[in-house]
Amino acid sequence: MKRVYNFSAGPAVLPEEVLKEAADEMLDYKGSGMSVMEMSHRSKVYDNIIKEAEADLRELMNIPDNYKVLFLQGGASQFFAEVPMNMMKNKKAGYIITGQWAKKAFQEAKIYGEAVELASSADKTFSYIPDCSDLPITDDMDYVYICENNTIYGTKFKSLPDTKGKDLVADVSSCFLSEPVDVSKYAVIYGGVQKNVGPAGCVIAIIRDDLITDDVLPQTPTMLKWKTQADADSLYNTPPCYTIYICGKVFKWLKKMGGLEAMKALNEKKAKILYDYLDQSKLFKGTVEKESRSLMNVPFVTGNEELDAKFVKEAKEAGFENLKGHRTVGGMRASIYNAMPVEGVQALVDFMKKFEEENA
Ligand SMILES: *Cc1c(COP(=O)(O)O)cnc(C)c1O
Fold first, then answer.
1. What's this model's pTM, rounded to 2 decimal places?
2. First CA to last CA across the chain, in angstroms?
3. Tens of pLDDT along the chain (360 residues)?
4. Is 171 a catalytic residue?
5. Which of 123, 130, 157, 275 could form a disulfide with 119 if both were Cys (CB 3.0 to 4.6 A apart)?
């Protein structure tokens, strides 16, 4: 068996320990005589799995009691619609446009009401986070929306925008559990788990409980009403059982690793290895303004498309997978999520050095 260093932006690398445990439990989960894939979501055994996953997540993120945790389907993309459906009482909201995912959420919100662009970094290909200290937020806005870590462009909000008292909604798909957060500063935190948490198929949403009501936009489907899922503890219908089970294992792994403070230190260490090299390289350069750099997604280019392609090809041959940049940006991107070991990043930098020498 040979495992590669997988720099995919998502679905992405998972902790090897978690995969091994899942393999051990594949045929017989804890004496149940069946795989977690095969059991009823109404069984006692599964109830323990989902309850424990939620409890561990609450502990990791220090989630206050007045927030609900929901395990949902439809991906982050479906949640783009769920936000206005459940929150647009005045049919007006503000969006900060820092990349494609924020833009897609913005466009989705326009189906349901007035979505206002509060700030944007489109003028410089989303290579920075705009100043959010004095946004044109009006009193009639239901919420302010951000994509906290921009997976494609490699930027991250280093401080939250001043929402002037309005509820903050954040898509954290690609920075979920990468560092501690103060949940109480948000109304809604959500993310698809396939970037930094688990296999594809589940969105975790952490929602302040006063936002979970019957007062949703007319014609909101039953399934997309947060109250439906909250009242049923995410078991209104069949949840993505196996994905939640793996997420639960990742939560336990994170606790064992020392929790989110320890993950932050580790993620900073990994990102520093890569950014320090990029900052002094004569061949490669990072594409993001320094103050806005993501710890998770690191885009870089040589400035020459042919050389970029050569690098991606040779890197793949050397066991570094999925380094090709997003199709809309080009160049390269290394996603260095929680489960990417320090050695993986160091090995990548060593390979880049070698490539630089050979192609000087
Ligand atoms: C990947 C991604 C999405 C889309 O996720 P899906 O689950 O595929 O819908 C949305 N937002 C961010 C920040 C992402 O990285």
1. 0.98
2. 35
3. 889 999 999 999 999 999 999 999 999 999 999 999 999 999 999 999 999 999 999 999 999 999 999 999 999 999 999 999 999 999 999 999 999 999 999 999 999 999 999 999 999 999 999 999 999 999 999 999 999 999 999 999 999 999 999 999 999 999 999 999 999 999 999 999 999 999 999 999 999 999 999 999 999 999 999 999 999 999 999 999 999 999 999 999 999 999 999 999 999 999 999 999 999 999 999 999 999 999 999 999 999 999 999 999 999 999 999 999 998 888 999 999 999 999 999 999 999 999 999 998
4. yes
5. 130
Q: Which residue has its alpha carbon closest to ligand 1 atom 2?
A: 173
Calculate helix-pair angle for 259-280, 342-358, nearest 10 degrees.
10
Q: Is 82 in the pocket of ligand 1 (CB under 6 A)?
A: no
Catalytic residue among 171, 226, 252, 270: 171
Q: How far apart are CA 339 and CA 347, in angstroms?
A: 15
Go through the domains of the chain in sequence order and give each one's CATH number: 16-256 (3.40.640.10), 259-359 (3.90.1150.10)
Q: Is the CB of 193 under 6 A from ligand 1?
A: no
CA 334 / ligand 1 centre spacing (Å): 17
Atom of ligand 1 lying closest to residue 10 CA: 1
